[in-house]
Amino acid sequence: MFSYMKTKKELNELKKVLADYYREKLDAQMDELFESGKLTMKELERRAKIHTRTPYAKK
């Protein structure tokens, strides 16, 4: 799909449309989690502080 974009402006517009679409989906899912009580602001803040990257092995 990106290869059909003739200008950089068209490409940026398409990227914005896709980003907006996925942002809206994420917002809806987060709202659902908060409304159901499965996620709270306290839990979200706790998870934001967790370091979950897999450490690289030292060579």
The gist of it:
63% of the residues lie in helices and 0% in strands.
Task: Explain this structure.
This protein is mainly alpha-helical and 59 residues long. It has one domain (7-48). It has helices at 8-36, 41-48. It is flat and about 45 Å long. The chain starts with 7 loop residues before the first helix and ends in an 11-residue tail after the last helix. The relative contact order is 0.07. The model has no long low-confidence stretch (mean pLDDT 90).
Write the layout of secondary structure elements.
Layout: H1 8-36, H2 41-48
Q: What is the helix content?
A: 55-70%
Distance between the termini: 41 Å
- Counted up, domains total 1
**Class from helix and strand fractions:** mainly alpha
Parts with pLDDT < 50 across at least 5 consecutive residues? none
Integer average pLDDT:
90
- Assembly type of the chains comes to single chain
Count of DSSP strands? 0
Structural Rg = 18 Å
SSE string, helices as H and strands as E: HH
How would you sum up the global shape? Answer: flat
| Discrete helix count | 2
How much of the polypeptide forms β-strand, as a percent range?
Answer: under 5%
Largest sheet features:
none
Name a few traits of the molecule.
single chain, 59 residues, mainly alpha, 2 helices, flat
